[in-house]
């Protein structure tokens, strides 16, 4: 059995009022170092992987996972064999070709230690913003037209990502 750690880094404590903590380098750097130290410790304990979710526009410091691939690279740079991945990257609001390319590059840079997980995006405040060019809203699982459009985008984009990773290119 393999064991991964899902990390959701925060930059403020419960009840603490902090304005725009995500912009505060005196808070961000210690948080990065703390997660890195925890993952080095976890690897030494025998954990197999590190993963986190993707959330944007969290400048108040609640979830600081705006770029899971950069997080993955940071942790991989400080561990020896721990796999790194995302659970999950929002595949409905992002360019699937760019996502496939970035994860493939991460896999190369980490010596094959990358894995990927994808989501439909369940946070309205950023999914609708990042996916506005596609008329994508957050996943509500309410069978509405917007929800069905989101679901179709996930399936279509997943097929494209998988094809880019597995199929021979003919152009």
Work out the helicity level.
40-55%
Q: Termini distance?
A: 41 Å
Tell me the CATH architecture: Alpha-Beta Barrel
Q: Count the helices. How many?
A: 5
Name of the top-level CATH class? Alpha Beta
Output the strand order for the largest sheet.
Answer: 1-2-3-4
In short:
Helix 2 (68-78) links the parallel strand 2 (49-52) and strand 3 (83-90). The protein is built from five helices and four strands, in the order βαβαβαβαα. It has a four-stranded parallel beta sheet.
Primary descriptors:
171 residues; alpha/beta; 4-stranded parallel sheet; TIM Barrel
What does this molecule look like?
The chain has five helices and four strands. By secondary structure, the chain is of the alpha/beta class. The chain has a single domain (4-166), classed as TIM Barrel. Strands 1-2-3-4 form a four-stranded parallel beta sheet. Helix 3 packs across helix 5. The longest helix has 22 residues, at 145-166. The relative contact order is 0.13.
SSE diagram, text form:
Layout: E1 4-6, H1 25-45, E2 49-52, H2 68-78, E3 83-90, H3 96-109, E4 114-119, H4 124-130, H5 145-166
Parallel strand pairs: 1-2, 2-3, 3-4
Helix pairs in contact: 3-5
């Amino acid at each position: 059995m393999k064991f991964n750690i899902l990390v959701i880094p925060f930059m403020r404590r419960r009840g603490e009022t902090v304005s725009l903590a995500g912009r505060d380098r005196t808070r961000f750097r210690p948080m990065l170092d703390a997660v890195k130290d925890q993952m080095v410790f976890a690897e030494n304990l025998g954990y197999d992987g590190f993963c986190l979710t993707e959330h944007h526009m969290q400048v108040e410091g609640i979830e600081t996972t705006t770029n899971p691939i950069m997080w993955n690279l940071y942790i991989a740079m400080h561990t020896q064999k721990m796999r790194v991945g995302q659970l999950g990257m929002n595949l409905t609001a992002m360019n699937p070709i760019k996502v496939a390319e970035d994860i493939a590059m991460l896999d190369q840079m980490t010596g094959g230690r990358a894995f990927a997980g994808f989501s439909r995006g369940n946070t309205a405040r950023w999914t609708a913003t990042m996916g506005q060019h596609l008329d994508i809203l957050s996943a509500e699982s309410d069978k509405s037209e917007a929800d069905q459009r989101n679901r179709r985008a996930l399936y279509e984009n997943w097929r494209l990502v998988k094809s880019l990773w597995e199929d021979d290119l003919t152009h």
